[in-house]
Specification:
heterodimer; A: alpha/beta; 5-stranded parallel sheet; B: 173 residues; alpha+beta; Chemotaxis protein chec
Chain lengths: 123, 173
């Protein structure tokens, strides 16, 4: 069954690249929602439920870790898999994301195979 | 403190990895040098990102508009003949990746650092100056007849001097 996906990044370029890489990785994608920060992401989730969230960490207004906290704290969204895609590759940041409930962590620069590997264990 | 050679090697490895992975492009590193307040390009693109913590400074990418179009075309797999919003966004993200990964590597030596949101400036006739007198490390890269400069300036944060290790502060003097 195709996955409806929410891609969250303040860079439109990265949102486009992530979408392209999901296709390259042959991930069955249905509807793709885009958001430029955590606030927009929450608004998008309220409008349309998704089966996967791919999010950056460093973003204005609400960062990816805050967004992750909001998702995990919501009865409706708590079980949605969340993959972080970020330049924040330090061990402390990775641990923080995992402790807050991230299902995977991909460091930029990244490949379609790396995204596929993270998703293989989830679906 | 990161020594000059280590900084150059780190910037080189990261830039080559980003270009290879995201652009499918090999870039050739040139001779790195240090300059005090180097002038920005008179035309083209400067993409800037701030670093802050016990050390603070700026990382930037500088190139011509044509070079930015070439890099962005590879990045987004869309042909760009002129600089537009998508090219500026792509350059901001390349800066974020290169300087962001440098930040992660530098944190081993300099402690935790924060990263600002990138700012990209494009114009036909302008100059850029840093208000400080600190030295900039400049690592030039060549690709397909174009050049891309990766520039870094880092200095101890005097307001947070208690967070700077004594040996690091001494090495910086």
């Amino acid at each position: 069954m195709p996955l409806d996906v929410l891609i969250v990044d303040d860079s439109a370029a990265i949102r486009k690249i992530v979408q392209r890489m999901l296709t390259q990785a042959q991930v069955p994608v249905g509807k793709v929602l885009e958001a430029g920060d955590g606030v927009e992401a929450l608004a998008a989730l309220r409008q349309h439920p998704v089966q996967l969230v791919l999010t950056d960490i460093n973003m204005p207004n609400m960062d990816g870790l805050q967004l992750l906290g909001q998702i995990r704290g919501s009865a409706d969204w708590a079980k949605i898999p969340v993959i972080m895609i970020t330049t924040e590759g330090g061990e402390a940041k990775v641990m923080e994301a995992v402790q807050r409930g991230a299902n995977g962590y991909v460091r930029k620069p990244f490949t379609a195979d790396q995204i596929k590997q993270k998703l293989d264990g989830l679906f | 403190m990161m020594q000059f050679e280590h900084m150059v090697n780190t910037v080189t490895a990261i830039t080559q990895e980003v270009c290879q992975t995201m652009l499918g492009m090999e870039v050739e590193v040139g001779a790195a040098y240090v300059d005090r307040n180097p002038p920005g390009p008179s035309h083209g693109i400067i993409s800037l990102i701030g670093l802050a913590g016990a050390w603070m400074g700026t990382g930037s990418l500088c190139c011509s508009g044509d070079a930015a179009c070439k890099l962005s075309s590879r990045f987004l797999m869309t042909e760009f003949a002129e600089v537009n919003e998508e090219v500026l966004d792509a350059m901001a993200e390349l800066t974020n990746m290169i300087i962001g990964n440098f930040k992660t590597a530098a944190e081993e030596h300099l402690g935790p650092l924060g990263l600002s949101i990138p700012t990209v400036i494009y114009g036909m006739s302008f100059s850029a100056r840093s208000a400080g007198k600190e030295e900039w490390l400049i690592v030039p890269f060549a690709f397909e007849g174009h050049t891309l400069d990766v520039r870094l300036c880092l200095t101890p944060n005097r307001g947070l001097s208690h967070l700077v290790a004594p040996a690091a502060a001494q090495a910086a003097r």
